[in-house]
Design brief:
By secondary structure, the protein is α/β, with parallel strands linked by helices. The chain is 30% helix and 29% strand.
Length: 375
């Protein structure tokens, strides 16, 4: 007879841990399965750690809703639980007349999403950031940075205190639909075994499309297939990093936000990422991309930074549903319409996933309650 549990979460990144912290309680048996040696080893720890405001996304999209809600939730969590953060603010800058028109549209989109924004005059821009160059800009006061490891530790500790258990170095080798749930086949460092779970939540991040396929979803037909986008970050010399006070962003491109100025909790300044598609996941920095950095839009906004001021620092890989152009929303879907009741997919949770984590956890918590009640 197979062991049975109530809820299984695949993936211990920030999304999986946030969901576990939300849904675990004394009346449910919750397991988190993670293939790496500890939590948050992939996208959750290789990113800019920015608390986004919700500016860029179409109104009523999941990205807009989850980001705006998550922004408020994160600041509350940080204050209540002493998680390191800096509410540093962000300025988005236009450098040409055509960009200025797009800047106004972006400003209006953010306002429609309920984001606190303020258009800046040239004088205000110069007062706030005297060392940047641009012809128009707006300020997002609610953008900030957070210590992502501390946030994940908080979610994990909360989940554990509510009874959730986590298994590291545990790889999923098979998923079968069975009466009353799913048979999960796993391999760890010592053996292979299987168990049955009533609810299965796919938070596998970079591999979430593979998990969906394993469970029986045609990922091509569903539009779930992922591509890997790698972005590299360069640090700026300490002397010049003190010439800015906030995060500085150029106008976004059709594919991403473009390389931008970001700071970590300690105040270390970085510029990045510039994304390019890759076939394999690795976090090595290819310094041959430095030339592209030096010619990127952000460098025109920062005339005081020269190419020799940049040193390679880190790289991240995100799994994107988005093609070269066009918007693709988060996929958070209970797959009952595909005859997979009790199976929840979270796929393409790229930026602003970190910011959205607590709001996504609430959203998935509602789905879980409905499943346990009705299926």
């Amino acid at each position: 007879m197979s062991y049975q549990t109530d809820i299984t979460i695949i993936g211990a990144g920030v999304i999986g841990l946030a969901i576990a912290s939300q849904i675990a309680n004394e009346s449910r048996e919750v397991y988190i399965l993670e293939k790496n040696r500890t939590f948050g080893q992939a996208a959750s720890s290789h990113n800019s750690e920015i608390i986004h405001a919700g500016i860029y996304y179409p109104k009523n999209s999941l990205k807009a809703r989850m980001c705006v809600e998550g922004n408020r939730f994160l600041y509350d969590l940080c204050q209540k639980h002493k998680i390191n953060y800096r509410r540093i603010g962000k300025i988005i800058v236009a450098n040409t007349n055509s960009e200025s028109k797009e800047l106004e549209r972006l400003y209006n989109r953010g306002k429609h999403n309920g984001v606190d924004l303020r258009m800046l005059s040239q004088k205000e821009m110069s007062q706030l950031e005297p060392n940047i160059r641009g012809i128009s800009a707006f300020l997002s006061p609610s953008t900030g940075v957070i210590e992502s490891q501390a946030l994940m530790k908080y979610f994990l500790n909360k989940a554990r205190s509510n009874g959730a258990q986590i298994a590291y170095k545990t790889k999923i080798s098979g998923i079968d639909k069975v009466p009353g749930g799913y048979r999960i086949k796993v391999e760890d460092s010592q053996s292979s075994f299987s168990f049955i779970t009533r609810v299965l939540i796919n938070c596998a991040g970079l591999r979430s499309d593979k998990i969906a396929s394993m469970a029986g979803v045609n990922i091509d037909e569903a539009g779930y297939k992922l591509r890997f986008l790698k972005g590299e970050y360069y640090s700026v010399s300490n002397r010049k990093s003190k010439l800015l006070n906030r995060l500085i962003y150029p106008m976004p491109t059709t594919t991403d936000l473009g390389a931008h100025v970001c700071y970590d909790i300690s105040g270390r300044m970085r510029i990045g990422p510039l994304y390019h598609f890759v076939d394999e996941i690795n976090y090595k920095i290819d310094d041959s991309n430095k030339k592209a950095f030096c010619q990127s839009t952000i460098m025109k906004i920062l005339p005081f930074i020269e190419c020799h001021d940049l040193e390679p620092e880190m790289a991240g890989v995100k799994a994107s549903l988005q093609k070269r152009e066009g918007f693709r929303d988060f996929i958070i879907n209970h797959e009952y319409n595909r005859d997979l009741p009790g199976f929840i997919n979270l796929i393409g949770i790229d930026s602003p996933g970190l910011t959205s984590a607590p709001a996504i956890a609430n959203y998935v918590g509602t789905l879980v309650n409905e499943i346990l009640k009705n299926y």
